[in-house]
Amino acid sequence: MDNILVIGASGQLGSELTWALAQQFGAAHVIATDLKHLSKATLDFCRFELLDVMDKEALFTLVKKEGITQIYHLAAVLSAAGEKNPSAAWRLNMDSLLHVLELAKELPLEKVYWPSSIAVFGPNTPKINTPQFCVKEPNTVYGISKLAGEGWCNYYFEKYGVDVRSLRYPGLVGYKSLPGGGTTDYAVDIYHKAIHQEPFTCFLEENSYLPMMYMPDAVKATLDLMNAPREAVKIRSSYNLAGMSFSPKEIFESIKKQVPNFQITYRPDFRQGIADSWPDSIDDSRAKEDWGWSPAYTLDSMTKDMLSQLPAYFPPQG
Ligand code: AKB
To answer: What is the CA(106)–ligand 1 centre distance, in A?
Structure first.
């Protein structure tokens, strides 16, 4: 019987993936962990433990005590937040991964999941249909840490047989929680403004294309990869993954079909430079070939679902 530990469970992806894991493995077999107690309210369907993944001893003790067989390590400082404190971002993103990989080797664990990102690509990467294997010269600390992390995952797989699996997520859009510290966060914030009938100020230019994905697709991709037979997972750095690709102008137009009075202004800030260094769209043919990946949502079907689900999770104040 598998016992699952989710690290960073109260984040944007964590809060949704933890629920899906509880459905698959049974709530009694999933332990959600995060730095703050706060997350308990949104994670009351399974056990919650306070855990600072930087505390290697606490991590090892919990994993051994609970007979954990799989770790989903989701804690990270994202792109925009990382630029404000690069050395802290590097330490958290790298040290925590190395703690988990060491643990996986030592015990050993059955499987590890660790997310990478489109942030591994940089200004010299081909921008359209970015291939799985190509130049990667990231210019954010987040991107540098994700690229180094991919190298470590591949290293632990090749040298020690650790079954670690990874996806390069595009920007993720979901209605259950707010993202924090990313460059793609605008694509979530815009829906919040739309349902509250407020105008939206976008921190990216109107024609700035980025790869994006609706959360149900991201959760499905993660479970599909983790449930694939070991031999099917041929890439042990991280898989390119695509859902859709759109600009701020296109998401605005998609929302306007449902909210005709919605308004937007563009005021690009430092995050524009980060967005400019990332791909417009991604070639994920290896994920399709190796473990049968296929996304379900388009921009318009995501917009319809976001606008209908969001008010229940973020009702108007007062
Ligand atoms: C970010 O914007 O930093 C993240 C990512 C693309 O990994 N959402």
So the answer is: 31
pLDDT in tens, 36-81: 865 545 678 899 999 999 999 999 999 999 999 999 999 999 999 9
Instruction: Measure 137 CA to ligand 1 centroid, in angstroms.
Output: 16
- Stated pTM of the model: 0.97
Q: 4-122+137-168: which CATH architecture?
A: 3-Layer(aba) Sandwich (3.40)
pLDDT class of 316 with cuts at 50, 70, 90: confident
Do 255 and 191 form a contact (C-beta atoms < 8 A)? Answer: yes
Distance 305 CA to ligand 1 centre (A): 22
User: Which of the listed residues 77, 116, 172, 269 should we mutate to test ligand 1's pocket, taking the one with most ligand atoms within 8 A of CB?
Assistant: 172
Residue 179 alpha carbon, nearest atom of ligand 1: 8
CA angle 211, 212, 216 (to 5 degrees): 150
Decide the pairing of beta strands 164-165 and 171-173: unpaired
Per-domain residue ranges of the chain: 4-122+137-168
142 noted as active-site residue: yes
